[in-house]
Design brief:
mainly alpha; Cytochrome C Oxidase, Chain A; 2 domains; globular
């Protein structure tokens, strides 16, 4: 664009139009990344950190399978095995799936709702650095030779000092509390962003399904994370300060931990899976060349999953002695929650039915989610029947079910998102040939690994055992599962090679055009990669799939015809004098103090003093950080809208009131 004079107020200063502000000058290099408050860079940081933890968790999985490949395995000892399987579960759930969902949410959510940034950019940066501090603190346990060893669920009294005398479970309790702070901050930030900063005319029911699923997840986080935080505080006090919340010998109740953990833990399952559902709901309509079937049903089924997820936690406790009335009630609620999930699966199938499907890598991974999650969901329904669950509990049948849900549902969905939005983030596509090799090796390896675990579990192989004796019929399927996990590793290697080789091929070439997939939602209005300021001007939204409706229409015979090319619809991304929030060092400084406090609680309370001082200093400096710092390292003129910003400026324009009510003609 040439000069942009649209009256888009950003930064809380409603008296000035967008065009009078100065663009911040990037500092470049590593400083730019550790001080950034740009939601796109924070999304990339989340994704990069999650992938690194993914490699760590994957290496732990390889060790587990090597140990169990043959009877009487001697790859690792029993104590180290307990630590490895505990850290594998904790890493994959809390340090891979959750932050990977946050990566997609941070990068894409503001773009999909037409916002300049999130509501509180510095808090957004803090959420990442706090998560990273918690993840690194948790993995520091390996350096001290004392990793958590009580399983990712940390059942009491096994996690008390009597059965776990080292500091491993302290690393667990403190590390997850630190990471949980980041999740809470991010949840509040994204909720405010969605409710206050949507583009003019974008009502809630004109948001993409992905944005809706992310919004539901943030509400789940907002209410679920405090529950696990309370449980972790109680565990920490039991272990370090002589309390007896979970000690039955002193009147404590070990079942209290199970209730607290699973009241968090079952909503957590949907915190993990709903972002992937949102991704699949964007990929399938694009490559089936049809609008999502039953949009309202997709949205309300996601809301129903989030709401009903609070009423099924005790199906994890059917063998704990909670009583037949409780077992009956949670049996019914568990069967009911399968209904909204089934709605999503049927709607995805209906979207693909009759479509002109393009089976590229992104679509392959999306269809993989539909098929693998269906298998995981069906095996999960068997757990709702308490007699069957009594047989299956603590066997490898549970391991198989959980991985079909989390790996087959969440991780495969994230890979679909990688291939779909990679040009939006980095300006070039990932290679299709390697992408298809990536898919087929992962999907084959996944089924070879976890399919046999159903058989192992039904044959009686217990989970969480470090070895087994020959003669029980476990040898064959354990060897098959071990071969499968190495096939998965090969698939991950194909992905890494794809990332490296596609980046090399793209070097020196122009970026991909703004709309490489003929997509449907607002993020594709911007060039690839996304400009630092996102949009040149506000987008007036009049329908769901606004971007697609600006390119296509129907003629008098009802036939879909193109009315504009992507180049005519997309913004140029060259607006100047765009106001953006200032970078800040204080989020990373504040985060650095939290692990020090954690080490102090475990080893010497005096260590808490410098940690607390660092946190308080960062808070003080943050509060008094000038909104415009002419002597700052990144130039001058950066009015910061962290505390009011776009949430305030966008409140009126993004409100549902006064939004255009006429829906554009739906093109089927």
């Amino acid at each position: 664009m040439s000069e942009q004079t649209a009256e888009l107020t950003v930064g809380g200063d409603a008296a000035q139009p967008l065009g009078v502000y100065s663009r911040p000058k990037g500092g470049g290099g590593w400083r730019d990344w550790i001080t950034t408050v740009d939601h796109k860079k924070i999304g990339i940081l989340y994704g990069g950190a999650a992938l690194l933890f993914f490699f760590v968790g994957g290496f732990e999985a390889l060790l587990i399978r090597l140990q169990l490949a043959t009877p009487n395995g001697t790859v690792v000892g029993a104590d180290l095995y307990n630590q490895i399987y505990t850290m594998h579960g904790v890493t994959m759930v809390f340090l891979v799936i959750m932050p990977m969902a946050a990566a997609f949410a941070n990068y894409l959510l503001p773009l999909q709702i037409g916002a300049r940034d999130v509501a509180f950019p510095r808090l957004n940066a803090l959420s990442f650095w706090v998560f990273l501090a918690g993840g690194l603190f948790l993995n520091c346990a390996w350096l001290f030779g004392d990793a958590p060893d009580g399983g990712w669920f940390a059942y009491s009294p096994n996690t008390g000092v009597s059965f776990s005398p080292g500091h491993g479970m302290d690393f667990y309790a403190i590390g997850l509390q630190i990471a949980g702070i980041g999740s809470l901050i991010s949840a509040m930030n994204l909720i405010v962003t969605v409710l206050n900063m949507r583009a003019p005319g974008m009502t809630l029911f004109k948001m993409p399904v992905f944005s809706w699923m992310i919004l539901v997840v943030q509400f789940l986080l907002l209410f679920a994370v405090p529950v696990i935080t309370v449980a972790l505080f109680l565990l920490l006090f039991d272990r370090n300060f002589g309390s007896n919340f979970f000690n039955p010998e002193m009147g404590g109740d070990p079942l209290l931990w199970q209730h607290l953990f699973w009241i968090f833990g079952h909503p957590e399952v949907y915190i993990l899976i709903l972002p992937s559902f949102g991704i699949v709901s964007e990929v399938i309509p694009t490559f089936a060349r049809k609008p999502i079937f039953g949009y309202e049903f997709m949205v309300f089924s996601g809301i129903a999953i989030g709401f009903m997820g609070w009423g099924v936690w005790a199906h994890h406790m059917f063998v704990s002695g909670i009583g037949p009335i409780s077992v009956g009630a949670f049996t019914l609620s568990t069967m009911f929650i399968a209904v909204p999930t089934g709605v999503k699966i049927l709607n995805w199938l209906a979207t693909m039915w009759g479509g002109k499907i393009r089976l590229n890598a992104a679509m392959l991974f999306a269809t993989g989610v539909v098929s693998m999650f269906t298998i995981g969901g069906l095996s999960g329904v068997t757990h709702s029947l308490s007699p069957a669950d009594t047989q299956q509990t603590d066997t490898y049948y549970i391991v198989a079910h959980f991985h079909y849900v989390i790996f087959g549902g969440a991780l495969l969905g994230f890979f679909a998102g990688f291939y779909f939005w990679w040009p939006k983030v980095f300006g070039h596509k990932l290679g299709e040939t390697l992408g298809k090799w990536n898919f087929w090796t992962m999907i084959v390896g996944f089924n070879v690994t976890f399919g046999p675990m159903h058989i192992l579990g039904l044959n009686g192989m217990s989970r969480r055992i470090d070895t087994y004796s020959p003669g029980f019929g476990f040898e064959l399927w354990n060897m098959v599962a071990t071969i499968g996990v190495f096939i998965i590793a090969l698939g991950v290697l194909f992905f890494v090679l794809n990332v490296i080789l596609s980046a090399r091929r793209a070097r020196g070439l122009p970026p991909e055009p703004p709309d490489p997939w003929d997509a449907r939602s607002l993020e594709w209005f911007t060039p690839n990669p996304t400009p630092v300021h996102n949009f040149d001007e506000d987008i007036e939204v009049s329908s769901l799939d606004e971007f697609w409706h600006r390119k296509w229409t129907t003629d008098e015979n009802g036939k879909v015809v193109r009315k504009a090319t992507a180049a005519e619809v997309c913004q140029a991304g060259d607006a100047e004098n765009v106001h953006l929030p200032s970078p800040s060092y204080w989020p990373i400084v504040m985060s650095a103090g939290m692990p020090l406090i954690g080490f102090g609680l475990m080893y010497n309370l005096w260590l808490c003093v410098p940690g607390a001082a660092l946190v308080l200093m960062a808070i003080y400096a943050w509060v008094f950080e000038p909104p415009d710092d002419p002597d700052g390292p990144f130039g001058h003129g950066h009015d910061d809208h962290d505390d009011h910003g776009d949430a305030e400026a966008g409140d009126e324009s993004a409100s549902d009131e006064g939004a255009p009510q006429e829906e554009a003609a739906s093109v089927e």
